[in-house]
Give the backbone structure.
Amino acid sequence: MKITNLTTETLLFNDLGKQVKGVSPVDRAIRLGANDSTYLLETSDVLLSAQSGDIKRFKDAGKISVNDRFLAVAAGADAVVTHNFGMIPNVTVILDPTDTPTVAVLGTDVTIVHDADYNVTTITNKTAGAVDMDVRIG
């Protein structure tokens, strides 16, 4: 999941869980500077935050955007996402998200290719024309 700060302030996300270091838990918070973005692996803490925590609160207030939006990707053109996960991500592509949202059919509507280190994902538009895409990577 990608979150992007749409404001000029630093946003603090306090509900993204704890990491256990030795015998004591360490709070794991994320600070997102003005106009910065980051990709988050979709752990249960991240999904809970998106449903009812800080991510949802900031999104509802118009302070962040969630996921990638690519507008008018031409036929045969690529949408490139650099997430730096270092592992195979789960990728969901929604075509025409503002009019008639439709899950893209792999091989027919899009192809998805990852680099050898699984840090960059390339989505190619295989439809006959330009299409808007919402992309969730987690």
